[in-house]
């Protein structure tokens, strides 16, 4: 898993859009408002991507057929999925070999 991190407005979502464009993957995001923002940004960058999926849509509609996704604002997506505020979390760094 590649982690893209940085401050707000630093280009994280733009990087995700580039990957989605190159690989044909869906972007999962917090809500419909964010999905529309991502879609508009992709159009402004002239990058054709699949319309982003919200957390609420993924398991019910398209999740069964999707093997791999990109996640925008992972902390918000995870909190929405768990329906809890997250106080702390860990992540394992994978070897890039």
From TrEMBL:
This is Replicase domain protein. InterPro entries: P-loop_NTPase. It comes from the Bacteria. The lineage of its organism: Bacteria, Bacillati, Bacillota, Bacilli, Bacillales.
